[in-house]
Specification:
The chain has 729 residues and is mainly alpha-helical. It folds into 2 domains: 418 residues, no CATH class; 143 residues, 2-Layer Sandwich (Transcription Regulator spoIIAA). A hairpin with a 6-residue loop joins strand 3 and strand 4. Helix 8 runs antiparallel to helix 20. The two termini are 46 Å apart. About 5% of the residues have low confidence.
Length: 729
């Protein structure tokens, strides 16, 4: 009782509106509206307008291309500088070991990881629109680069000319192999950068939407498995070839297991110790995040300790532990990438360009939403394209946003890309001045850093449970992306995942939800009759809705669902009518035969008494036929032909975004078929673009007019009721 009173009080407080207006169909509505006059521009005028330049337009384009010109003059030094300095130092401290470590993933010497941590990061300060992301080396992109480098320059290719057991020849073999792989990585960076730059200039920033979140997470999880398996040989200190392409994970694991007996115990102990220290450091940073002014830089601490222990104990000579080796001091002279490699790596460059942009823009959007500013996806493409293409002339490989470093840059107080510029300056100091100090650093330490940084990606296995509960289709996308990328390789896996994601979109449009709508009493609101008890259908009117557009892929399912949901199948009704008419014709024929026979008997002189006795038996058909003949045309039609109790059918086009030529033909066919069985078909809530599309497809010709289209479902319902009343009168 109290609940009912509260509900009534709530209804009384609810705001109401009352509008009295005519019942609008599109013919009437268009007659009362006046379209704005628009003078169409010729192609020449459009080109002239786009090429026209003013000082304001030039300034706008310059600020768009170089965002730093917009925010740097307004930089609040007192508020932002200290935070940016602390953030830049913290990020730079992470940038150093990760640059060295991810170079191993890219199959190039560690110093090239430092180059990739300097040039692109510094360039992004000028061209990027995000204030918080940290550009540089990233595990997934480095792994993709390494896969291409190993495929183009396998160990066997270089080993052919170096069969000698001489140490000098052995070193020359490694130098020749690394030099060729560097050229592949550099050319790949140049090509991927050019692709990103072109996509940005052509305003193709939307391509990232085709890499949905489940796809990216499944792909990066598989990439994490690839990265982990590739680092096992460095952690164990064993010598195996590096594999790329399909089943490379299986081959890598098999190669490691086949040589597990040659494990270098010293390298394993150093690596495991570093893993434990890094995990402890990350746990402390996580638990005491609010109390610590800056995160503990465990990675650089581990690098310094590892370098000191290696140099002090001479691990390279005494225990044959592989170390970083020669780090040239100073910057290298710019060089042009090897253009002749482009045809062989073009597809890989496209994959790297799109994945790199997707990673960067997704992270940039997260920070932009958190801190209340906007980013330009197209400018981000241009910025990444410049970072990669220009950086390639200085021997850097492909880069993108690093998730872990971006989180550190933002959490330690970074406000602008001044922090990123400072982190790149720190890397520059190492390259120019103190890089040689890291030459004794064991490779197993770098492997430990890489493996521990994969912890966040491995947590993504929990997505399986999440998507199982929320969306089976998104779970399927995640699993396909993971399995395909794991076993087919990252390049083919990504293509397979994107293709599958597109197939799921087609599947969803081919299998939409269909429903019959009814009215909430005393309102113009219509809902699913199966979902709410209060919703009622109008007698003789069916309102059908499909939550998808109408086009070639789902036109047949739309028609079949319409017949099933409404319970009115024109083809079945017409077939039943024809059957009834044939049966009636047979009855008339049989009756006529009996009449003729009775007449012949009378003429033959059969007595009236006998004839009267026999006529009731034979006269059953005659009397039945007479009763049919005496019926009115409407009664006869009802007697002979099956008839539906539905007089109007309304198609709700609210969810329809587009209609193609097949969809328009399907609509025409539906209207024609239902008209033959006495059912009027109306279309409600058709949007302007869909109306224009139907007009262009010449839908409103012959029997179909705009009078069949209504502004809303309620307009269509009222019109159908008026039509039914006038017909019954």
């Amino acid at each position: 009782m109290e609940h009912a009173q509260e509900r009534e009080a709530c209804l009384e407080q609810t705001q109401r509106y009352c509008v009295e207006r005519p019942i609008y169909n599109q013919e009437l509505l268009q007659g009362q509206l006046h379209r704005r006059e628009r003078t169409p521009q010729t192609l020449r005028q459009k080109i002239a307008h786009s090429c026209r330049c003013s000082s304001k337009k030039a300034k706008s384009h310059l600020y768009s291309f170089l965002p730093i010109l917009k925010w740097l003059p307004r930089y609040p030094v007192k508020e932002y500088l200290l935070g940016d300095i602390i953030s830049g130092i913290s990020t730079g401290v992470m940038q150093l070991p990760q640059g060295l470590a991810y170079a191993l993933l890219a199959a190039v010497p560690p110093v090239f990881g430092l180059y990739s941590s300097f040039y692109p990061v510094f360039l992004y300060t000028f061209f990027g629109t995000s204030k918080h992301i940290s550009i540089g080396t990233f595990a997934v992109i480095s792994m993709m680069v390494g896969g291409v480098a190993v495929r183009q320059v396998p160990d066997e290719m270089i080993a052919v000319g170096y069969n000698s057991t001489n140490v000098t020849d052995y070193l020359e073999y490694y130098h020749a192999r690394d030099a060729k792989r560097v050229q592949v990585a550099v050319t790949l960076a140049f090509l991927s950068g050019i692709i990103q730059l072109c996509l940005g200039l052509l305003r193709f920033g939307f391509v990232a939407i085709y890499l949905t979140e489940p796809l990216v997470r499944g792909f990066t999880t598989a990439a994490a498995v690839h990265v982990f398996t590739s680092q096992l040989k460095y952690l164990l200190g064993i010598k195996t070839n590096r594999y790329s392409g399909p089943l490379s994970v299986v081959y890598s694991i098999a190669a490691v297991l086949s040589k597990i007996t040659t494990t270098n115990i010293a390298a394993l102990i150093v690596g495991l110790t570093c893993i434990v220290l890094l995990l402890i450091g990350k746990e402390i940073n996580l638990r005491f995040k609010k109390k610590l002014p800056v995160p503990i830089p465990m990675e650089i601490i581990v690098v310094i300790i590892g370098t000191g222990v290696s140099a002090g104990m001479n691990l390279s000579e005494s225990y044959r532990v592989d170390v970083v080796g020669n780090i040239p001091q100073g910057l290298r002279a710019p060089a042009v990438p090897e253009i002749q490699l482009i045809p062989a790596i073009f597809v890989d460059a496209i994959a790297i360009a799109i994945v790199g942009f997707s990673m960067a823009v997704s992270m940039a959007k997260i920070f932009a939403l958190k801190h209340g500013y906007t980013i330009d996806g197209n400018q981000e493409l241009i910025a990444l394209g410049i970072c990669n293409s220009v950086g390639s002339f200085f021997q850097s490989f492909s880069v993108t946003c690093s998730m872990s470093r971006s989180l550190v840059q933002e959490s330690t107080g970074g406000k602008t890309q001044i922090a990123g510029a400072l982190s790149s300056v720190m890397v520059l100091l190492v390259i120019v001045a103190i890089g040689y100090l890291f030459e004794p650093l064991p490779q197993t330490v770098l492997a430990a850093i890489v493996m521990v940084n994969l912890k966040g990606m491995f947590k993504q296995f929990g997505d399986v449970v999440h998507f199982w509960r929320t969306s089976k289709i998104e779970l399927a996308i995640w699993l396909v992306a993971f399995v395909a990328s794991l076993f087919l390789g990252l390049d083919y896996g990504l293509l397979t995942a994107v293709a599958f994601a597109m197939i799921t979109v087609i599947y969803r449009t081919q299998s939409p939800q269909y429903r019959i709508l009814g009215q909430i009493p005393d309102t113009d609101i219509y809902c699913d009759v199966k979902e709410y008890e209060e919703v009622k259908e109008y007698p003789g009117i069916k309102i059908f809705q499909a939550n998808a557009s109408l086009y070639f892929a789902n036109s047949e399912s739309y028609t079949s669902a319409l017949k099933k949901k409404t319970g009115v199948d024109p083809c079945a009704i017409l077939a039943a009518r024809r059957k009834a008419q044939k049966r009636h014709a047979r009855d008339i024929k049989a009756t006529n035969k009996l009449r003729k026979k009775a007449t012949n008997d009378v003429e033959a002189g059969v007595k009236h008494e006998i004839a009267d006795d026999e006529l009731p038996v034979n006269g059953k058909f005659a009397s039945a036929d007479a009763s049919v003949q005496d019926m009115s045309p409407d009664e006869r039609e009802h007697f002979m032909e099956p008839k539906t109790n539905i007089h109007s059918l309304i198609l709700d086009f609210t969810p329809v975004n587009f209609v193609d030529s097949v969809g328009a033909k399907t609509l025409k066919s539906i209207i024609k078929e239902y008209k033959e069985v006495g059912v009027r078909v109306c279309i409600a809530s058709c949007s302007g673009p869909v109306m224009n599309e139907l007009t262009r497809l010449k839908f409103f010709e012959d029997t179909v007019t705009r009078e069949s289209l209504f502004h809303s479902i309620h307009d269509a319902v009222l019109a159908c009721q008026v039509k039914d009343r006038s017909a019954s009168q």
